[in-house]
Structure formats: structure tokens, C-alpha cells
Amino acid sequence: MISDNLNFVKSRIESVKHDQEVELIAVSKTRSISEIQEAIDAGQFHFGENYLQESLEKISSLKNSNLTWHFIGPIQANKTAGIAENFDWVHSVDRLKIAKRLSSQRDPNLGQLNILMQINIDKEETKSGLLIEDIPEIISEVKELPNIALRGFMCIPNPENSAASFSEMAKLVSKFSYLDSLSMGMSADLELAIERGATFVRVGTDIFGKRSYN
Ligand SMILES: *Cc1c(COP(=O)(O)O)cnc(C)c1O
Questions:
Q1: Is the CB of 202 under 6 A from ligand 1?
Q2: What is the 3 state secondary structure string of the chain?
Q3: What is the domain class of 2-208 according to CATH?
Q4: Cα 111 to middle of ligand 1, angstroms
Q5: pLDDT band, very low/low/confident/very high, at 213 (cuts 50, 70, 90)
């Protein structure tokens, strides 16, 4: 049952000592509207999606439920308008061009779009994200864009050393006093991430069960 799973994930979050506020994002990629509705009925309001096309129907059918939608997947430049118009947070901004497009395509009447820059914390060739050394320069430009608000960083670490990578992320975000958000930790490692300062954990499998594709 989704509601039992949600309660169990919440109890795992509470079992970890932490001072920061932690928001649980239910990653609903590949899940149906009725599965999402079950989570809503159990008190879940933040959802994460990876694919624009798949998410639009869900967002529009559930628009009366007062949900917060997080885009967490890789971003192609031709998808930025749909993301800017329909999401509240974007966790996977990995280049300046994408940040500029999101800002110019965001309707100012919606308020600023919240942005996290994705960091390739373990410098893995198979993963997208910025390298730490590129951060200061990009941030100085992203901060000036009018319709997005840079809030922090996101990472998907190599599971083999996620604890060390989470600590490195915490150190990085602490260098910028105006940043307040750190998106890290999934089903398998959310405790480690919270211990090290995560403010968003992104959990799919442990809420909705195994996915048949990614
Ligand atoms: C799919 C996905 C998740 C959820 O992963 P689970 O292992 O199912 O909890 C979290 N973050 C990102 C970026 C994802 O793509």
C-alpha cells in the first residue's frame, strides 16, 4: 500500500537526527494518476517527474490538489518552455543555456521558478551535472536571471561512496550563504543524505514499488 510505504519512509526520515527541514519528494515517474492520487490521499504534496511529456497530463489533471511539482530529469533545450510553465522547482539545471531559457520562458506572473544546479559530484562520465570548479562562474550569471531563483544544488552520487559525496555537497552549498537547499538521497541512501544536510530527498521505489523502466 502506498500509504503504508509513505508512512514508513517518513519514519525513516524522522529516525535520523537533523536540524534542517527535510521535504520528501515522491518521485512519480512512470506512475499513473491514480497511484499519485493515492499518495495525495495519504498526505503527500511534493512530487518529482523526469519526463516532460509524461508529466504534463498528470499536472493538469491534478491541478486542484495544490501540489508542488519538481522536475528532476535531464533537460533538453527544446523542453525548457514546458518545464518553466508547469513546474515549481527544477533540480537538474546543468548548464547556463538551460538556466537562461528557463528564466526567459517563465511567466513572471507565476513568480520565480526555483532552481537547483545539478553537480556531477563524482565526476562520472555517464552522469550529467556541473563540475565543482565550474560553479562560481556559472552561479554569478545564473543569479542575475530575473525569473528564476537559484536555491541550491542537487546530486546523484555514485552509490559506492555516497556518504563522502553527500558531505562534499554540504561543504559546497555552505560556501554560498544565500543558498538554502540541497537535493540528495533516494530510496537506498536517504538516511545518509539527511545526516549530511539534505533538505530534499527524492524517493520513488520505496513509495510506489519497483518501476518497470527508468
Ligand atoms: C528515479 C529518480 C529518483 C528515485 O529513485 P528511487 O531509487 O526509485 O528512489 C530520484 N532522483 C532522480 C533524479 C531520479 O531520476
A1: yes
A2: CHHHHHHHHHHHHHHCCCCCCCEEEEECCCCCHHHHHHHHHCCCCEEEECCHHHHHHHHHHCHHHCCEEEECCCCCHHHHHHHHHHCCEEEEECCHHHHHHHHHHCCHHHCCEEEEEEECCCCCCCCCCECHHHHHHHHHHHCCCCCEEEEEEEECCCHHHHHHHHHHHHHHHHCCCCCCEEECCCCCCHHHHHHCCCCEEEECHHHHCCCCCC
A3: alpha beta
A4: 27
A5: low
